[in-house]
Structures are given as structure tokens and as C-alpha cells.
Design brief:
Distance between the termini: 57 Å
Strand content: 35-45%
Order of helices and strands: EEEEEEEEEHHEEEE
Helix content: under 10%
Strand order of the largest sheet: 4-11-10-7
Number of strands: 13
Number of helices: 2
């Protein structure tokens, strides 16, 4: 792969008395090889964390490599100058889908088993002079359980032996 260029071939034919010389120009064309991507098999992140992942690629021919990202999750941003994917996840990255089936699973306390983690992915492409390589990277997002939130209580005064009734309420943000 390193032998592209122009070469001169000189051929001599001789019968011992006479000789003939021929010269031929041989051009070996460059074959562009595909760039190599350095990609992990899986990225892991939790909800409400920031994912900053820088990736790289190299070209076996020494050509410049252009890296691009596509099909990345909503809210993720790719910075081409640094070849970095930035994604600030929220607590709602993994959430209930809603609808009657989701409501049924939630009432049966089964939906949380299905909302433990979710796989997102994005595609990375590295292009050399003529040929490109592509890889897909899965991102495993783990659901983070948040504490329930109690509604504020008003200060109350009661006399001894008087019955106190409080209206309590709490919301599970998940």
C-alpha cells in the first residue's frame, strides 16, 4: 500500500552479439484504504448525568480523517472540532410511556421493572480521501430513582384530647 507512484522498467534482450533495450513507464495507482474507528462496544451513563465522549479515527494511508456523528439521541450535541459528543441527560430520559397499558403496569407495580434502563445509539462515520468507515455505538442509560416529595404541612395547634386530622399528600417524581 506504500508503493504508489511512477517507476521506470528497463528490459534488455541479448543473444550475445546483439542487444535490444526497451524502457517502459509503470504507474502504480494509490488504493485508498478505509479509516479505522476507535469505538467502545458500549457507553454507560445514568439519568441526570452529563456524557462527554471524545472519539477518534485514523487512516492507514496517513490521509486526513473527517469524523461525523448522526442519529444521536435528542438533546445530544456533536462538536466536530473536538470530535466530542455532549449529552446532558435529565431525570426524564427514561419515563413512562403513558396510555392504558402503561397505567395498568404502574397500578400493578410492575412498570418499574421495565424502566430500569434503556439503550440509545448513535452512528459515527470516519472518511479518508475516498473511503469511509461507519460504526454504531450503544449508550446504556440507567434509570435513577428519585425520592418522593411530600406536600408542605401547615403549622397547626390543637388542644389536648382534641383529635387532629391532617391532609397529607406526596408525589413520586418518577
Amino acid at each position: 500500500y506504500e508503493d504508489s507512484g511512477t517507476y521506470t522498467l528497463k528490459v534488455v534482450a541479448s543473444d550475445g552479439e546483439y542487444e535490444q533495450n526497451l524502457t517502459a513507464k509503470i504507474t502504480v495507482l494509490d488504493i485508498d484504504r478505509a479509516p479505522e474507528l476507535n469505538l467502545p462496544s458500549l457507553l454507560r451513563v445514568q439519568e441526570n448525568e452529563k456524557l462527554n465522549w471524545t472519539f477518534s479515527g485514523s487512516d492507514p494511508d496517513g490521509d486526513d480523517v473527517e469524523l461525523t456523528v448522526s442519529e444521536f439521541p435528542e438533546g445530544a450535541v456533536f462538536t466536530s472540532r473536538s470530535s466530542t459528543l455532549h449529552w446532558l441527560l435529565s431525570y426524564d430520559t427514561i419515563k413512562r410511556s403513558g396510555g392504558w397499558f402503561s397505567d395498568l403496569l404502574n397500578r400493578l407495580h410492575l412498570e418499574h421493572f421495565l424502566l430500569k434502563e434503556k439503550v440509545f445509539s448513535f452512528r459515527v462515520t470516519a472518511c479518508g480521501k475516498e473511503v469511509c468507515s461507519t460504526g454504531k455505538i450503544p449508550i446504556l442509560v440507567t434509570n435513577v430513582n428519585r425520592a418522593p416529595v411530600l406536600a408542605p404541612l401547615d403549622n397547626t395547634s390543637v388542644t389536648e384530647t382534641e383529635q387532629l386530622t391532617l391532609a397529607l399528600s406526596a408525589v413520586d417524581p418518577d
